[in-house]
């Protein structure tokens, strides 16, 4: 993970030095690279399966998750696309329909082929937030949200494991040793932390009780070790990050940079919300890393890339 941090900080520094206007020119190429990376998941021997989902590809000694790249590729591409469309965005046929097709195609790839509902939700919410800032009509936004809810429900019904997670969410204690095991162990860890926590390194849940303790479930471990006070401090730091990102977007010098800063900040926001809410059993459990904190290189490096872009925009 220290290697991931070093690479991520290098990417962050480089992105903070690249003029943000360059990302407009590179947007189609970055989206194309993300699509090729997703297609690479279909190549036997290159992709590998974990926890019943094929989301990773081998790159020598390291592995890479293409869906993480797709999130930021979509944000960069949509920022450029929204800026180019201008007034056409208020039109249903010229603005809303093309956007809906792009988002639907990306969502199908992530949900059906990678079985990654959490990443799809982050991407969808961030994209809709960017469209709102770009100037979509309220009635069009509500229509898109209605269609999205219907398709989201269909994606849950179509996959038995998601129906099982929904049932577990509605009654986590019903099958605490089976389908509700992950959520139950997360809640035990969070509850065990009390007000001030058990202390750094004194988590009990990490010893084989809590699945994905260093990755998707890291918030439960933090709550166990640092308690309510530590958890609120972490949430406050995320709040400060989101506030600064939105301030950068508010003061951005042009439409492209405003939309780009908004999209990156919303990715941070919704990914943190979904991860923490899943650990608190406020939403159905879905596997998604906590930004900047969860173990794993793909998420950390690309989150730091987004932070570097925000830093560069803030210089203007």
Regions with little confidence, pLDDT below 50 for 5+ residues = none
Name the structural class. Answer: mainly alpha
Give helix and strand order, one letter per element, not per position. Answer: HHEEEHHHHHHHHH
Look at the structure and give the mean pLDDT.
88
Shape: globular
What percent of residues are in strands?
Answer: under 5%
Tell how many strands the DSSP assignment holds. 3
Helical proportion?
A: 55-70%
N-to-C span: 33 Å
Report the C-alpha radius of gyration, rounded: 20 Å
Strand order of the largest sheet: 1-2-3
State the helix count. Answer: 11
Largest sheet: 3 strands, antiparallel
Search tags:
single chain, 316 residues, mainly alpha
What does this structure look like?
By secondary structure, this protein is mainly alpha-helical. It contains eleven helices and three strands. A three-stranded antiparallel β-sheet has the order 1-2-3, with no helix packed on it. A hairpin with a 2-residue loop joins strand 2 (53-59) and strand 3. The protein is globular, with a radius of gyration of 20 Å. It starts with a helix and ends with a helix. The mean pLDDT is 88.
